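Folding problem:
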Amino acid sequence: MRAPATPVLTSGLLTDVGRQRQGGVNQDAALALDLPQGGLYAVADGMGGHAAGELAANLALDALSQAYLDARGTPPARLAGAVQAANVTVLRHAVGEYVGMGTTLLAALIDRGAALLAHVGDSRAYLLRGGQLHRLTEDHSWVAEQVRLGHMTEDEARDHQWRSVVSNALGGEERVRLELYGLEVQAGDRLLLCSDGLSAVVTDQDMLTILARPLPPEATARLLINAANDGGGPDNITALIVDLQRPGRAPSYALPPRRDDGPMYVDTLLSAQRGSSLHSYILLMLAYFTLLGIMLVPERRVPIGLIGTVLLLVLLVGQRLMRRPPAPLRPPSAVLPGLGQPPATDNSAVTETRA
């Protein structure tokens, strides 16, 4: 009798209201959707008042999953389009008593041997690999920008009075701004998606200690939520963990590279994805005409094959260089004086006052 195959991945998620939220309303929401080659996972942290925030987070995740399942094309383009669909859904419901509502959105698509991340706001993704914890996202917030500029340390950012001022969220304008990039995953990788109710309270070192324990995803998520509550539980807390046990080979499409210039408008990202699809089409056509030339002109098969192989290698190397590994955790920045007021923003739904 053959032993059952090891699953490609396992996941677990938990969300908790925290200890200081009034009324017991949880404005966080999470999604775990199984797919044939992996899964779609997401965390949303709503804003705009208790009822509005809860509604925004759940609307966004419902629209994200449905739009991804209904879409066609490459997974990166489908994921970016699904985030835009979630944005439009939140925006269209932000009327009447729900005016000004919005939500963060962090989505991870596991597709065979790759993970695609779509990021809007200040929820975070982390990767545990080989005993080291890598932070995969940068917060879209005012205090995060101050940390990047060296004006504030991570510890100061956790307690700053403007820590809840996010500079990007769903529901602020018709076209969403997001970061989208991919990375290859390995057997043994552990991925964490979480709201700021966890990342703003539990230190990276404590996170590493908990994530490194050999426990199932849901048990690990419980330990992380307990740690956030032990730290005061000032906000709703969500932890979603995905363990990669038997990922497949890397997909044939080019993974979107990680950029350093922050979130981009979705139409710009989709244009870039169409360019990547064209690159793959050129590779296929070059291989086809190389083989055709060898068959039609056999006496020239050696130079034709050599030229075709060289061109294919050049294109493949260029495609490979577009993929970047996850950036390591940033060290604490030096403290510099002279902090100003948080900048004005043209996104009407990006300011949240969390408890």
About this structure: The radius of gyration is 22 Å. The mean pLDDT is 82. Residues 9-254 form a domain with the Phosphatase 2c; domain 1 fold (CATH 3.60.40.10).
